[in-house]
Amino acid sequence: MNLKEIKEIIGLMNENDLTEIEVEREGSKIKIKRASTEFVETVVRPSPPHYKVETQPANQAGGSPAVSTEVSGKLTKNITSPMVGTFYRSPSPESPSFVEVGQVVEIGQVVCIVEAMKLMNEIKSEIRGKVVEAKANNAEPVEFGQVLFVVEPV
Q: Around Cβ 103, how many Cβ atoms within 10 Å?
């Protein structure tokens, strides 16, 4: 299976609100499972030779779990990168940023894109709140778990 097919399977899973799906085709087997934290876990195991690839891409409903922190005495939550890749604040260089500091974001709203292996992965907010800080720089690499935005819940 190629990445396009895997992405289509994830799309079908999200469209039908499935929590788990397993597909076996042409000697390849893929099992995708949505954890309670809104992650999609993808495990690809091609037939011999035995290689195992495990990734945790952001699903269509969100990025990574929001982690609570405190900024200036106020409770905040972090939106972190669910993967290693290149961070983009807007869909193209000419377009405005998805979000700006001071803007209120809604649950499910796209806040940025992380490009990984030539795939553009929309990262969506899992919380409603005001963006108080943008931690990542546009067009620069980000690591798994790196804080992208700090949000104050409203």
A: 14
